[in-house]
Amino acid sequence: MFKKILIANRGEIACRVIKTARRMGIATVAVYSDADARAPFVQMADEAVHIGPSPASESYLIADKIIAACKATGAEAVHPGYGFLSERTSFAEALAKENIAFIGPPVNAIAAMGDKIESKKLAKEAGVNVVPGFVGEIRDTEHAVEISNEIGYPVMMKASAGGGGKGMRLAYDEKDVREGFESVKREGLNSFGDDRVFIEKFILNPRHIEIQILGDQHGNILYLNERECSIQRRHQKVVEEAPSPFVTEKMRKAMGEQCVALSKAVGYYSAGTVELIVSGADPTGESFYFLEMNTRLQVEHPVTEAITGIDLVEQMIRVAAGEKLEMTQDDIKIDGWAIENRVYAEDPYRGFLPSTGRLTRYKPPVAGWTDDGEENGRRGVDGVRVDDGVYDGGEVSIFYDPMIAKLITWGETRDEAADLQVAALDRFELEGLGHNIDFVSAIMQHPRFRSGELTTGFIAEEYPEGFHGAPTDEAVTRALAAIAGFMASAEADRARRTDGQLGDRLDPPAKWQVRDRRRRAGGEGPEDAHRLAHDDARRDPRRARAALACGAAGEPHDRKNPARSVEIPHLPDARPARRAACRRRGQSRGGSAAGDRRGDEDGEYLARRKIGCREDGQRRAG
Q1: Once rounded to an integer, what is the mean pLDDT over residues 223-251?
Q2: Which of 63, 76, 524, 621 sees the fewest Cβ atoms within 10 Å?
Q3: What is the pLDDT of residues 93-110, one digit of tens each?
Q4: Contact 42, 338 (CB under 8 A)
């Protein structure tokens, strides 16, 4: 086993690898740029090496700097995480030349699966279902139009070396092909250095389902069930869950066996993911097709860990060290349900604009990387797990991915896991920049999500005009209005009072009273609860508590029965003080002109203040 490994990555994935390595007794080395000098992963590692300026192209993407850090620290192996150099064959080859282990798959597998065109050819040869399409060389736009007409619309045009939602265009007719083909070529060339494009049939009502693969260097390859990743925005995953609510046991077995066959065909080992596109319009589940294979650890790997109990990072390290898998396919079970939401620094109320800057407040529902000591932390604390790489007061940089954290919940059932998500998102405190917490919380509560009727078009179909907040239940709205008005009234009253200058407690001004114009004639229904709360708060706190209780419960309010109450801060009864003030003035509660003036809340405010001040002056003089 390795004694020291280097993590050629940053943020939450670097923290993730460090946590497992520490549990295994392996020392860790972090590499960091200028922007990450104070990042949590740098503090977590046993050693840290500065590798350059903030832009990734000048730091994390320079293989020579990573290798130099390995030599300087004596690291025996490198875990690439995901992104950056994780799927670069040149990086794995450079490490091999320096006798440094690459914690990932063999170079030939990375090369074969990294080329979208070649990978489809290999998949077809291995007996894997492939989406109907053309995977040869496309000469020009006219050739692309000819191919698309033969396949039948709609078609998807993809850059051969693409990924992460880049280099993709959907065409519904010949016009779309003519307009989009050249742009896909340019995006492929600019983003990946490869302008080759392939065209395939677009599956209607598609679901994005992927199979987790794990293999060793002794020929053993297993499938660790599936993940559903259909909820996406612009081809970027937003919500992931395991297992899928659509996949049956028969489908799971068929998908898994085909993915294992593909992995064996390329001599694969380590952790990897085969992505499939599944037709939601086919209830038999037989219409699933190979999409691509990611030869690395996936962002959404925690949901698989939660339902299988397998630490994927640990297995990757053991496989790279030459160890044999200790489990068989029969040992792989599904225990419960897990859901992951990605918390991004982007503003859903403004078209998901990226948001960068300082986190003036960051307090997740449970501290990042904490666990209850069970399942090696793969389910966090009481079914809530937070994988993050930021801290309170830290910054979300413009140089890297805007993901702040991953929130993972586990429950016995899908609804239980979703309910835990809603509760945990409510407790997630994040200030200083825009974020998508409200958005993913709304998805977790959406009836369509709860039904499991998902497609990759979920967000576009359910939020065609963008996200403007989730609708609020009417009963909750009434209760919140009552509480908010009550608090505003009390705050205004406190702000108006100056100690030692006024001789009496004053009623809140009328503008702070929340009144419901829908009051029923001859009765007081639940819609009057918040109005009564504010009216009664000035007279009798017991009635205020009763009104609030009825507002929250949606029940009629009985003003004669103040016993029904909720626990709210106690307000002192102002009536004894008022009576005492009246006696000092020699007035009764209701019979004099001064008493009449007291009934006017606003018009006689200054007159009453003068009386109070005059009496205070007399008392001080006496």
Answers
A1: 95
A2: 621
A3: 999 999 999 999 999 999
A4: no
* Consecutive H or E run containing 321: none
Token pair recorded at residue 23: 């549990």
Q: Indicate the length of the chain as a whole number.
A: 622
The answer to whether 311 and 375 have CB atoms below 8 angstroms apart is no
Query: 553-582 burial by CB neighbour count: b if 16+ within 10 A, else e?
Result: ebeebeeeebebbbebeebeebeeebeebb
Q: Over pLDDT 70: what percentage of the chain?
A: 78
Which residue, 291, 209, 298, is CA-closest to 248? 209
CATH superfamily placement of domain 206-335: ATP-grasp fold, B domain (3.30.470.20)
| Cα–Cα dist 298/616, whole Å | 74
Lookup result for tokens 């020392």:
27
E-state strands within 360-443: 361-363, 384-388, 395-396, 403-411, 429-431
| Contact call for residues 120 and 199 (beta carbons, < 8 A) | no
Catalytically annotated residue among 200, 292, 305, 524 = 292
Kindly state the DSSP code that residue 381 receives in the 8-state scheme.
B
Mind listing the pLDDT tens digit for each residue in 517-571?
444 444 444 444 444 444 444 444 444 444 444 444 444 444 444 444 344 444 4
- Note whether 554 and 540 are within 8 A (CB): no
Across residues 131-150, what is the average pLDDT?
A: 90
Alpha carbon distance 164, 226 (integer Å): 19
489/503 Cα distance (integer angstroms): 20
Residue 292 is a catalytic residue: yes
What Rg value do the Cα atoms of the chain yield, rounded? 32
d(CA 189, CA 192): 6
> Per the confidence metrics, is the pTM higher than 0.85?
no
Residue whose C-alpha is closest to residue 131's, from 121, 139, 140, 141:
121
Q: Could you give the angle at the alpha carbon of 266 between the alpha carbons of 260 and 246, nearest 5°?
A: 30
Asked whether residue 516 carries a pLDDT value surpassing 60, the answer given is no
CATH superfamily of 132-201: ATP-grasp fold, A domain (3.30.1490.20)
CB atoms near residue 599 (< 10 Å): 10
**CATH topology for 4-103?**
Rossmann fold (3.40.50)
What single-letter amino acid sits at 369?
W
Here the tokens at position 121 are 């050819």
State how far the Cα of 107 lies from the Cα of 119, in Å rounded to an integer: 14
Domain extents in the chain: 4-103, 132-201, 206-335, 337-471, 475-621
Count of CB atoms situated within 10 Å of the CB of 47: 17
Which residue, chain included where needed, has tokens 């496309």? 138
DSSP string of 189-206, one letter each residue: HHHHS---EEEEEPPSSE
Q: Helices then strands (H, E): number in the chain?
A: 21, 25
